[in-house]
Amino acid sequence: MKNTKPSYLLVHVAVLLAFCVVVLGAFTRLQDAGLGCPDWPTCYGHAVWPQTSEQIAAAEKAFPDAPFEQAKAWPEVVHRYFAGTLGFLIVLVGALAIKNRRLKDQPFKLPLLLVGLVIAQGLFGMWTVTLKLWPQVVTGHLLGGFATLGLLWLLRLRLINGPWPGPNIPMRHWHDLKPLALIGLLLVICQITLGGWTSTNYAALACPDLPTCQGHWWPPLMDFSTAFNFAQEIGPNYLGGQLDGGARLAIHMTHRIGAVVVALYLLFLASRLRRHAGGRDLRRQANVIVGLLGLQVCLGLSNVLWSLPLPVAVAHNACGALLLLSLISLNYRLHKCTAPW
User: Fold this and answer.
1) Final residue in a domain of this structure, among 143, 162, 181
2) From 60, 69, 76, 233, active-site residue
3) Is residue 124 domain-shared with residue 262, that is, in the same domain?
4) Within this chain, do residues 276 and 337 fall inside the same structural domain, yes or no?
5) Is 60 among the catalytic positions?
6) What three-state secondary structure class fits 303?
C-alpha cells in the first residue's frame, strides 16, 4: 500500500540511521573506544578530534589522564555525529506529527515518545563519558539505542497502515498466537539486556571454551551477588571492567543460559506459526525468525571459539537488532490482522 504521509520517507531514513547507530555503538564499545574522547560533546575540545601535532600536544596537556589515541577517538566521534543526526531526524518526525495530528491515522503519541527517548539517549551518551563507562549507564544507553530502533520500526509499520489478512485458521488459534509472540518479544528484550550487561562488564571472554565453561558445566567460583549488583560504585574508570573473575563467570553463564532458553522458545514459536498459519505471510515470518536465530547462535558461538573477533562481535549485535525487529513485526501483524471470513 502506497503511503503519502509526509513523515513516511523521513521515518524510513531514520530507521536505517538508527540501525547504523546501534552498529556503530557496538563497534565503539567493542573497540574499547567509549572513552576515546574524555570530554562531551567535544573531543579533546575539538569538533572532531585533534589533527596536528600541536593540537595533540595541547589535548594531552589539557587531559593528562587520557592520552590521545586516534584509533579510539574517531569511532567515538563518528558515533556521536550519527547519533546527533538521528536525533535531529526524530525531532523533525515529532514536529511533523504535531503539524499533521489531524490527518487520518497519523501517529501522534509514538513520535513524541521517540523525541523524549532520543533526549534521554543524549543524556546517557554524556553520562557514559562523564561517569567513565559506569556499567549501569552504558547498558541503559545500549538498551535506549535498541528501543529507539524498535520504536522507529513500529512507527514505520504504523505509517504503512495496511491491514494484513488473518491466518486462515479458527479464531481461537489465531488469538492463541498473540500471547506466544509477545512472550517471544519479551524474551528477546531480556536476552539483549543480558548481552549488554555482559559486554559492559567485559564478561564476554570469561568462558573461553564450549560447551563447558573453564572445563566445568557449572563453574564453582561463580559470584551472582556481585555480578548483578546494580548499585556499583560511581567514580572508578570502568574501562576494562572492575568485577572479579567469579562475577564475570556468573554474568557469562547467565547470558548462555538465556540464549538457550530464547532459542528453544523461538523454535517453538516458529513451529506454532508454521502449524497454524494459513497464510504465506506468517510462514515467511517464521522462516525469518528461525534464520536470524540460527545466524545469531552461530555468531555467539564464534565469539567464544575465536575470542571475540571484532567483526563477529559487531555482527552479533546487528543480528540481535534484526531479531528484535522481526519479533516487533510479528506482534504488530498479529495485532493488525483482519479476519479472512
Assistant:
1) 162
2) 76
3) no
4) yes
5) no
6) helix
